[in-house]
Amino acid sequence: MQIQIKNLSLVYPLRSLDHYLLRAKFVSSFKNFFQKNKSSEKFSKKKNHIVALDNINFNLESNDRVGLIGLNGSGKSTLLSTLAGIYAPSSGEINMDYNLSIPIIQPYSVCEHDDTVHNNIIVIGLLLGFKKKQIENQMKEILSFAELEDYQNFPVATLSQGMKFKMVFAVCFILDGKKIYFIDEFFTTGDEKFQNTGFDYINQKKDCIIMVCSHSRRIIENFCNKILILDKGKQVFFGNIDKGFEIYNKIIKE
After folding, report:
1. pTM across the whole model
2. N or C, which terminus of the chain has less Cβ within 10 Å?
3. Nearest Cα to 220, choosing from 252, 179, 194, 187?
């Protein structure tokens, strides 16, 4: 099993540029109908796109656990979303030879907050392609793993962020048989006890690839065997964790 990323780039168009340009022209012309609109000319020269990911390249093998790290706005969540198929890349290649699980990127996006924990687990399981009977058969194990036995009849809206994550995490890892998982930094919303439980469970899974986005050095050092560093959409480093953190600390200081 492999993931091969070649020259991956993602460019966002600023679709609202014309809207703001027209608004600027209108305001300016209203103030002085005969005065040339210099502010609009200046605005129109600004770039009309954002390079969110710029030429990303790396390969992953079975049992790789990759820590994805970078300052806020570096492109971490964008990369995970692109690998998960949520965003279409502008250029480059994404090659995976195995099915992807539901990406644990925005766990709340798959939840119906007014419905119960029990029913949400069923819905998530159905989205993963399982029959309702299969989900019910493993319901007890899922609730126990997520430490939500006493909350199964509560609306999801009453849960904390950490509890919501536990629910989605438990369904994906216990019920799902897929082999590739992308986890955003929501993993850190779980308490340390659950993080350790999650790590222990993940480490028992064989022949899978996991990429976890986190600002926690402890999580990456204890869980991962490789690190990928992004800065302003560019790939700065991919490889050894200790070497990676040396480079990341320089980025922080700069």
Report:
1. 0.73
2. C
3. 187
Range of the domain at 242: 63-253
Number of domains in the chain: 1
Q: Is residue 6 part of a domain?
A: no
Q: Given a cut of 60, is residue 27 above it in pLDDT?
A: no
> In this structure, is residue 248 part of a structural domain?
yes
- What is the arithmetic mean of pLDDT over 212-232? 89
Query: Treating both helix axes as pointing N-terminal to C-terminal, what angle do 161-170 and 117-127 enclose, rounded to 10 degrees?
Result: 40
Q: In 3D, which of 169, 174, 217, 171 has the Cα closest to residue 194?
A: 169
In-domain check, residue 246: yes
Q: Are 70 and 220 in contact (CB under 8 A)?
A: no
Mean pLDDT of 141-156: 93
CATH of the domain at 160: 3.40.50.300
Asked, for residue 227, whether it belongs to a domain, the answer is: yes
175-178's contacts with Cβ under 8 Å and 24+ in sequence apart are 175/125, 175/128, 175/130, 175/134, 175/135, 175/138, 175/142, 176/101, 176/102, 176/128, 178/98, 178/99, 178/100, 178/101, 178/128, 178/208
Half-sphere exposure of 191 (CA within 13 A, CB side): 5
State how far the Cα of 133 lies from the Cα of 175, in Å rounded to an integer.
12
